[in-house]
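Each record in this resource describes a single protein on a pair of labelled lines. With that in mind, the following record should read easily:

===
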Amino acid sequence: MLPPLNFRTHPTHCPRNRLSYGAAVFLVIALGLGSRRYPIFPLFIGDILWALMVFLGFGFRMPARSTAQIATFAALFSTAIEFSQLYHAPWIDAIRRTRLGGLALGFTFMWGDLLAYAVGIALGIIIEFLLRCYRHKPNR
């Protein structure tokens, strides 16, 4: 059983551990690729994991930023990528036809993907909050 959270002592001032975030990015990438490879998972699981990976990637890149800033960057980036799918020029469609380009940029704009991205980023916020709270408990 976890001890109760004390929101007043939440360690938002603690920088993120880059090694942990880097490892988490690779783990989420592996899970996301697995979700695409095995059709037993709904497609939105991959979108949720993609947004979680973006959140973790920004956390890795900017370890001293607040969780709210990381979530904002991840949401803006994810939304920009989704809306970029409305743009179809030969050069970007050629990138999308590659495996990596298709996974990173997607193909078709869908409003539901934005909801999946919000869920993925929210999952990142929750995981980060819980891990940072319980890792840095104040001395009593």
User: Anything to note?
Assistant: DSSP finds six helices and no strands in the chain. The first helix runs from residue 18 to 37.
